[in-house]
Amino acid sequence: MSETQTRPANTREYRNGKSRRVNVARQRKLQRLKEVAKEFAEHRAAMVALVFLLVISLIAVFAPLIAPESMLNVTKLLDVPHFAPPSWEHPFGTDHQGREIWVRMVWGARTSLVVGLAATAMSMIIGTVVGLAAGHFTGLAGGIIMRVVDFFLVLPSLILAIVLSSVLSRGVLTIVIAIGVTSWAGTARVVRSQTLSVASRTYVERAEVLGGGHWHIISKHLLPAVMPLVLANTTLTVGSAIIAESTLAFLGLGDTTQQSWGTVLKNAMDVSAATSGYWWYIMIPGIAIVMVVLACTLVGRAFESITNPMLRRN
Amino acid sequence: MSTDVIPPGKAAIAEQQDEGRESHRQSFLGYLLAKIGGAAISLVMVVILGFFAFRILPGDPVRKIAQSRPMTAEQIAQLRHQYGLDQPMLAQFWNYLTNIATGNFGESYVYGKPVSELIAQYFWPTIALTGTSAILAITLGLWMGQLAAWRSNSPYDQVATGTSLVLWSVPTFWLALLLLMIFGGTLHWFPTGGMVSTGIPTGTPEYFLNVLWHLVLPVITMVAVVYAQYLLVMRASLLEEMSADYLTTARAKGLTEDLVRRRHAVPNALLPTVTLVFMHIGGLIGGAVTVETVFSWPGLGKLTYEAISGPDTPLLQGTFVVFSAIIIVMNLFADLLYRQLDPRVRRA
């Protein structure tokens, strides 16, 4: 759509053929970006969600300034009441060791977001590479790759993530790997189906006829065509990864030295908060997870509806 | 919810339809063999993964046991011999394969019982929980999803879709904790854990009702999280069909809107939905781990949690293989059902 509407390059650029080409390409990209931004702004819920995510990210980045780490030091909290319900003094209540829940939430946001983003990046890279390979290479190689993709798609990802994180040494990196390695199959399938539809277009055939190798075709033609889809999928995956992180932490597989929303909920379960009436201990971390994941879902769906050609069909 | 990447959306549906078209070209026997072969390969891969995932890694299970109680070097060597850990990797792998073929998953470190015995004991409670949840979630999700699509952008659709998106964002274990807190801990309407109260003789109607009573909260948790996904899948699938010409034809014949939906649109929309719904069974199984943990439901999920806390490698390996096998079989079933549901294929 944008290709036909590109403004002509200005006169100075006509003198040098090369720089003109580059500038036209850049202008097209810029224009498309503006279009996407404009369409995105029309999704009001997604805009609110995006702002919310930015605020949470800022809180995570500036956690040491908002709540100094000493506020989590249990040995300095001996005179603070344990299980204090929310009040002016303790806005979100305190936990079983007298720590403020809100401080744990602020620090936990770091783990949730870092793991969410890192695991997503890993999952996206694996998914894109495998999906491109499955779509580009036909015959036996493609068949084998798809068999592997189907295997990972069907496999209970949480169970596999549990297995991985229980055999690897505890730590944030382990959680990232466990989630990344088990969640790429969906992306690979979407990328493959998009690759297949792009690969049959004439401009790709032309490049093949002109002698373009596998690397050229994949990097210059197929990858740019599937990127918008992958990026739209990314935000949705961040939400899933955050839930996966909190689930693994809840099962006691997280990094015990780091705060995480899932760990707060694990502590809550270990002290039977649900049956002892410590409602804030359960409500606050849970609502935080739901809001962040919902925000990711809303942003992701908005991006998906803008960039996915399959959805623009009607 | 699960860690599945794609939330049910139109993209997944459209892709599923493409997939479906591809499958029509094969004969039934070819299709059957291909699917059974695929499932068999997946099973073999699970078994291989179940072995290597636990052995490529540096941790020594015997040392972990030795940590909990003082042991002499001789006792450690004895233990290592007992679990076959002193043999070369290839010999261990062969032992593992022959053992699995005969249903022997080794002995649990924590329980000191054969893993297969434990799994057999905890298997049926899990099937009761996930099976009930799956049936309710599929019925509810598909029914509400087709209504949402048929009246798309109506207030009903907005509420149904909005609720689903929120529920889709809820971690299963948190919803379990929340329901436990409200209906178990505060209102005392339902028990806070276990499968049956003590002192009730097995096999009586009273026993059955008591199990049902314990089943309510875990099932509500799993249904709430999963039905939302099914609703979104069904809604997206039916929306794809909404503009199809055959619906116009059906209306031109004078059929009521209700009949057009029930007899024409929904059967077609069901096709891609079925496969996606079964694909999400994996998510349901994953949810069982945390739900059973929170409600102390004596199933494979709780067994998995105990295996993590041990750590109890043979037990975790066993539950992993069994869970994966259940899911692979369910998917095979979905593939065959898909063929059966599609009249274009049945006729061929």
What sort of overall outline of chain A do the alpha carbons produce when their principal axes are compared? elongated
Task: Summarize the main sheet of chain B.
Answer: none
Radius of gyration of chain A: 24 Å
| CATH architecture identity of chain B | Orthogonal Bundle
Annotation, overall tally of beta strands of chain B? 0
CATH topology of the domain at 100-313 in chain A: MetI-like fold
Just give the CATH class of the domain at 100-313 in chain A: Mainly Alpha
**Gross morphology of chain B:** globular
Examine the secondary-structure arrangement and name the CATH architecture of the domain at 100-313 in chain A: Orthogonal Bundle
Write a brief caption for the model.
The complex is a heterodimer of chains A (314) and B (348). Chain A is built from 15 helices and no strands.
Question: What does the model show?
Answer:
The complex is a heterodimer of chains A (about 325) and B (about 350). The model of chain A is unreliable at about 1-15 (pLDDT under 50). Chain A has a domain at about 100-315: MetI-like (MetI-like fold). Chain A contains 15 helices and no strands. Chain A has about 325 residues and is mainly α. In chain A, helix 4 packs across helix 6, helix 6 (about 100-135) packs antiparallel against helix 7 and helix 13 runs antiparallel to helix 15 (about 280-305). With about 350 residues, chain B is mainly alpha-helical. Chain B has one domain (about 15-55, about 85-345): MetI-like (MetI-like fold), CATH 1.10.3720. Chain B contains 15 helices and no strands. Mean pLDDT of chain B is about 80; it is low at about 1-10. The chains are: A mainly alpha (about 325), B mainly alpha (about 350). Chains A and B meet through helix 7, helix 8, helix 10, helix 12 and helix 13 of A and helix 1, helix 2, helix 7, helix 8 and helix 12 of B.
